Structure formats: C-alpha cells, structure tokens
Amino acid sequence: MAREGDGSLSEVWARVGSLHRINDLAHTLHFYERWALDYDQDVANLQYRAPRLAVDCLSQAFPGPPHSALILDVACGTGLVAVELQARGFLQLHGVDGSPAMLEQAQARGLYQHLSLCTLGQEPLPSPEGTYDAVLMVGALSDGQVPCSAIPELLRVTKPGGLVCLTTRANPSNLRYKAALEATLDRLEQAGEWERLVAWTVDRWELATSKLEEVPGTSDTDGYIPGIVYLYRKQEVTQVEGVRPSAQPLTGL
Ligand SMILES: C[S@@+](CC[C@H](N)C(=O)[O-])C[C@H]1O[C@@H](n2cnc3c(N)ncnc32)[C@H](O)[C@@H]1O
C-alpha cells in the first residue's frame, strides 16, 4: 500500500492540512487507508490530545466501576482512545471505523474485544439498541467525515442513563460544521433524548497546520487550534403507569 509519508513536521502539517480540506467521505476514508501506518507518529508530532481529553472527561463523570462497563469507540482509528480508556481501567472495549487499514492497526494493539467495519452516515452501527454504558467518538466530527445525521445512531446503541462523549475542532475551517453539530446536539436535548453534562473548550487542542487555522489569542495559545469535548447522559427510561415507553426511532433531526 502506498504510504502518506513519514517526514518532517512541515510534511505532517501539509498532510493533515490537506485532510482537513477534504469534504467528501469517500476521499477521506481513502486518505486514512493510506495514512494508517503513519497516523500515530504524525498525530503525536501534531500534539493531538483529543483522546486523552475525552477519556478524562468521560472517566470523571462515569458513575460506576470502569472495569465492568462496556464501551463503544466509534471511528476508533488506530486505537488511541482505547489506550487512554485502558489506562483508566475501562477494559471492555468495542470499536468501529470506516477504514480497514485503520482497523488493522487497532486490532494490532490488542485492546478491543470486538472491531467492526462500519461507515457512519451510510449504515447503522452493528449493535442492538441500548448495548453500551458509554459511547465515544473522538476526532471524526468534521466536514467529510461523520455527518451530524449519524449522532442519533450513537444514542440508539447507548443504554438508558449511559454516557456519550464527542469531540470536534473549533478552528476557523471547522466552525460551520461545529455550528451544525451543536444545533443537532441541542435539538436532541430539547426532545428530551439526553442532557448535556459538559461542554469543555480546550485552547491547546493540537498544533495548527497553518497560520490561517490559528485563532488569535494569548501567546500561550498561539500556534494551536482550539477544540471541544461534549459529554451527554442519555435519558433514563421512565415508565408512566399504564403507558408503554415509546420506541420511536431517533430520526428526522
Ligand atoms: C482523526 S481519526 C480519529 C481516530 C481516533 N478516534 C483518534 O482519536 O485517534 C478519524 C477516524 O474516523 C474514521 N472515519 C471518518 N469518517 C468516518 C465515517 N463516516 N464512518 C466511520 N469512520 C469514519 C477514519 O477512518 C479515521 O479512522
């Protein structure tokens, strides 16, 4: 397989910058196919901290013992989120991703009990309703990756009262997607499907790939782009006497 390269920081910036400009899912997944072997090294060079920040957020709010929780890592990539989850005692991990080459890298880590190929936005998650204690999706909510219309699918597979943790970038070129995402998250909250526990903006999310992507701030944040971690709790099932809980599919958002 042709590889995307393994060169200097400026090459990493160019590569990740070009990924951020793709807004078509087929091209994005093709890019990840070619990037899989170099992904971990490149994002380390980029000081990509989203997996750690998301798992910190989840583990602080998680109500029970982590070892008995079943967790789904959506768009798991090479498994960086699983590394963080395992470090905090979450051991029962399933993953899905739309790129076979990224899944191969995740498989090689040996941290997931189950991995599946699944393209969000085109097919449902391969799990029954209410399967997981927590669902995470880190680094995949942007144009050309996972569409906002896939969010209800994450809720579907989460247990009532379970947690959903999401991240997105807040750099200039992702602001339109972020606004659409937040509108979707808010509509689900207004519909009583879940409640927001956390919306945590982080200034030093990862290095900017160009001056244009930087958000002017203090010298401390110069050179970085901001990002955000969202944490939601799915509505508990409330059964009113004599009325069966509704099993409406979460569509039309
Ligand atoms: C930036 S990587 C993030 C991987 C991992 N979560 C992390 O934080 O390191 C984005 C991942 O999302 C996957 N992806 C993007 N769009 C997808 C979609 N619509 N369905 C499934 N996977 C998708 C890519 O294949 C890639 O592995």
TrEMBL record:
<dbReference type="InterPro" id="IPR041698">
    <property type="entry name" value="Methyltransf_25"/>
</dbReference>
<protein>
    <recommendedName>
        <fullName>Methyltransferase domain-containing protein</fullName>
    </recommendedName>
</protein>
<feature type="domain" description="Methyltransferase">
    <location>
        <begin position="71"/>
        <end position="162"/>
    </location>
</feature>
<dbReference type="Pfam" id="PF13649">
    <property type="entry name" value="Methyltransf_25"/>
</dbReference>
<dbReference type="InterPro" id="IPR029063">
    <property type="entry name" value="SAM-dependent_MTases_sf"/>
</dbReference>
